[in-house]
Amino acid sequence: MLGVVQGLTEFLPISSSAHLRIVSEVFFGRDAGAAFTAVTQLGTEAAVLVYFARDIGHLFLTWVRGFRFPAVRATPDYRIAWLVIIGTIPIGVLGFLFEDQIQTAARNLWLIATTLVVFGLLLGLAERVGKQRIELHEMKPADGILLGFAQAMALIPGVSRSGGTITAGLFLGFTRPAAVRYSFLLAIPAVVASGIFQLPDVFAGDGPTGAQMLVATVIAFAIGFASIAWLLRYVERHSVYLFVWYRVALGGLLFVALGAGWIAAT
Question: Which residues form a coiled coil (predicted)?
Fold first, then answer.
């Protein structure tokens, strides 16, 4: 079940970590944990690597060639490759500094309900006021840094890694497809590093077995691959208001459930 949830929600701007936290509490009466989330994200990031294999390979080779050939350094692809690297630094530093808080206090369901609603409304505002004229190859260094910090906000469950990046991208004037594609590329280094780093933690105590983690990760990969294809087609033709209303509705329902005592916040 959690593998399905991870695959369905990782790439949509609705926060996979929030959904895993909520589903774990509702159906199993306890939190699956931040480590479980990080490891199952390896499955969905593997889907990104497969889906964008040609683009990623081209960016990597361009980046490597740029060290030898000055002309290559003037290309947009070389700049994008560096911006992905630079944009990964904020989430790496903040994740390391606030690891304990991320795994404990940040997983409180009252906080998650708040971030679902607040950042959902910010996504809607970005959709409304964003110029949506800038394409990915026009990205500047300042844009990459700002989007990196936007991704770092997703360390708090409920913000959404893709949601934070897409919201910032729309505010900066990027088109929806450009913001979505960059959110995929930007997530790869951070998610892979986080998943590998927290792999030992997920089996600690009464956590899942190796077989359970393998099944969850494979399921997340398969469903995540389909989710990527669907989202890219969707944002080319539609606004992101569907996700805005979903986030607000889910956050509101979570507030009700917590206030009525149907589920525990921690």
Answer: none
Q: According to the 3-state scheme, what is the secondary structure of 166-218? A: HHHHHHCCECHHHHHHHHHHHHHHHHHHHHHHCHHHHCCCCCCCHHHHHHHHH
Instruction: Give mean pLDDT, residues 201-213.
Output: 72
CA 202, CA 260: separation in Å to the nearest integer? 31
For residue range 153-186, list pLDDT tens digits in order.
988 999 999 999 999 999 999 999 999 999 989 9
Question: Residue 22, CB half-sphere, CA atoms under 13 Å: how many?
Answer: 24
- pLDDT for position 117: 97
Mean per-residue pLDDT of the chain: 89
Sequence-distant (≥ 6) Cβ neighbours of residue 25 within 8 angstroms: 31, 109, 263, 264
- Percentage, residues of the chain above pLDDT 70: 97
SS3 track for the chain: CHHHHHHHHCCCCCCHHHHHHHHHHHHHCCCCCHHHHHHHHHHHHHHHHHHCHHHHHHHHHHHHHHCCCHHHHHCHHHHHHHHHHHHHHHHHHHHHHCHHHHHCHHHCHHHHHHHHHHHHHHHHHHHHHCCCCECHHHCCHHHHHHHHHHHHHHHCCCCCHHHHHHHHHHHCCECHHHHHHHHHHHHHHHHHHHHHHCHHHHCCCCCCCHHHHHHHHHHHHHHHHHHHHHHHHHHHHCCCHHHHHHHHHHHHHHHHHHHCCCCCCC
pLDDT-derived band at 204, boundaries 50, 70, 90 = low
- Are 257 and 263 within 8 A, CB to CB? yes
Question: Is there a contact between 186 and 204 (Cβ–Cβ < 8 Å)?
Answer: no
